[in-house]
UniProtKB/TrEMBL annotation:
Domain of life according to the entry: Bacteria
MF-aspect GO terms: nickel cation binding
Pfam families noted in UniProt: UreF
UniProt cross-references to InterPro entries, sorted A to Z: UreF (IPR002639), UreF_sf (IPR038277)
Keywords: Chaperone, Nickel insertion
PANTHER family registered for this protein in UniProt: UREASE ACCESSORY PROTEIN F
Keyword Chaperone: yes
Source organism per UniProt: Microbacterium pygmaeum
Name assigned to this protein: Urease accessory protein
Record Gene3D superfamilies: Urease accessory protein UreF (1.10.4190.10)
Amino acid sequence: MQPAAQTISLLLADARLPSGGHAQSSGVEPALLGGLPVDQIGLFLAARARTTTMVDAATAVVARHAALDCRPMTRIERAWSARTPSGAIRDASRDLGRGLLRLAAAVWPEATSSFGETGASPPRPLVLGAIAAHTGLDAETLVRLTIYDDMACAVAALLKLEPGDPAGGVRRVLEACASMEPHVSRLAAITEHAHIPAAGAPQAEAWSQDHAVTTRRLFRA
């Protein structure tokens, strides 16, 4: 029997999911190394949610539609790549996608059938979309899941980089997710790759590029 969609969403949002998220900081470590003050992390998360994370959420929704309709993912992946100009951020997403695809192959093997044409490392939002289609997650839940996962990953990394009160981290996650709530319905309604928003974050992308070549880091990205 297939678990309820609500259970699947809780599983995918769990930081203990063995898909490699523990090695990522959602751009927080690059930002701190680039000079962002710790007291501006909340602003950083809100900006990331409206840019990189929004692109990922919309991409996941379009991938879900494609998987439901048995359409190829190639154009969606290209659209995502065009809207994710930082090679370091793309590489990090593919690392996460590879880990999530490995998990899906063991738990939901049917969900992996969409990736024959994209190679072994599709980006994370494509894999999330395929899993959502297979497990019955609706589009709005998928948007919220994508946003929450990115914000929670960032705050978990922050507590390792700049230890503080974990309750403050929870507050930051809730605030960042709440800031995106007005956009959830619009993102969930996107069905075509051409309509994925193109929201860039040049400074964060530059920080990520610099971070990718440093040897003094705790996180992959």
